[in-house]
Amino acid sequence: MAMLKLLRAPLKYIQGKDSLLNFYEETKNLGSSFLFICSNSGYKNCHAKIEKSFENTGSKLHFEIFGGISSNSEIEKMRKIVRDEHVEVVVGVGGGSAIDTAKATAYYEKCPVTVVPTVTATDAPCTGLSVIYKDDGTFDKYLFYPKNPEAVIVDSKVIANAPVKFLVAGMGDALGTYFEARACSRTDSPSLENGGVTLSAMALCKLCYETLMEYGYQAKLSCEKHLITPALEAVIEANVYLSGVGADNGGLAVSHSVYNGFTVLEECKNTMHGPLVAFGTIAQLILEKAPREELKKVMDFCYKIGLPMTLKQIGVTDEKRVNIAAEKACAQGETVHNLVGDVTPGQLYDAILTADLLGQKYFK
Ligand SMILES: [Zn+2]
Q1: Separation in Å, CA 209 to CA 76, 79, 133, 173, 277
Q2: How far is the CA of 52 from the centre of ligand 1 (A)?
Q3: How far is ligand 1, taken at its centre, from the CA of residue 73, in Å?
């Protein structure tokens, strides 16, 4: 039987200025006892609005600041709170790790989960999976869930007040989405949800790319000054929903394997996920022999937004080290193999070095 097409998404997506004041309205059907697993800044920036939305409702709220990484011991700690306090709904408030911890806790305790992203740097909010780390912070495994979060609630004011580097990083992650899905559909490769790519998923991925091109730069300027504009709203939606649901259902290819490859290099440890994905996207387009116009459009965008285009910008000063990253990026099971004709470490090395050469031209 041919692979079945599949589309999954959060049940509900809410976005706008002060949307957290509606938290109770949007989630009251899920239960009346809530555990909020918060990052430090997530707690600081969100708890007042959330508490206000619950005024006089009689619901029980428990805010818990979590340890910073989505590790098994952290998840165990949160599960104990769920059991001891008869929690009915788990909420993740913060960046990727708080969200991943909340999703895992809810899954194991069979509770619905709601997500409140406080930055738009990754695809964590809308996807049906968590990245689990070991207690020392190194990658452990992916945890796949049977469904996506019940609700994702994005407060644009919280996003606009967060450091702009997170919005830019999210645009880097979102930049790969369309090209990776396109690569998967060309080879009938499965999505992250292990299904065939639907027309609907491709449409979301394409809209993600177009939204970045149209509004990315203006959104960056707005966010720098903490201004909320329609362009910023559009890019928040692209980073959180279009990129998240798009990648989940459209699949990954070279961009994310390049990210995985560079994470083994010590010198890249301060470069965030999204910027590495953006650099990997340039390498993917080179491997695909993409039309010059398309490559130029992507590179012009990276330059304007401040996404990396050279090895130096991602922390690599010794070209030979790229061999290690390329080997790792082409390991068995990596999504790099979803590309037409497949990719060898040697070919990837050449493409990455070429991306670097083209990128350097922008800074001369
Ligand atoms: Zn990503």
Answers
A1: 38, 38, 30, 11, 14
A2: 33
A3: 24
Rounded to the nearest whole angstrom, what is the distance from the C-alpha of residue 49 to the centroid of ligand 1? 29
Mean pLDDT (whole number) for 28-42: 97
pLDDT band at 1 (very low <50, low <70, confident <90, very high): low
- Quote the ligand 1 centre to 122 CA distance (angstroms): 6
Helix (H) / strand (E) element for 255: namely helix 254-262
Q: How far from each other are the two terminal CA atoms of the chain, in whole angstroms?
A: 54
Helix and strand numbers (H, E) in the chain are 14, 8
Q: How confident is the model at residue 331 (pLDDT cuts 50, 70, 90)?
A: very high
Two tokens at 63?
């805010």
Fold that domain 163-361 belongs to in CATH: Dehydroquinate synthase-like, alpha domain (1.20.1090)
CA 206-210-212 angle, 5° bins: 120
Q: Determine the distance separating the centroid of ligand 1 and the alpha carbon of 291, expressed in angstroms.
A: 24
The domain limits of the chain are: 12-160, 163-361
DSSP state of 194: S
CATH number of 12-160: 3.40.50.1970
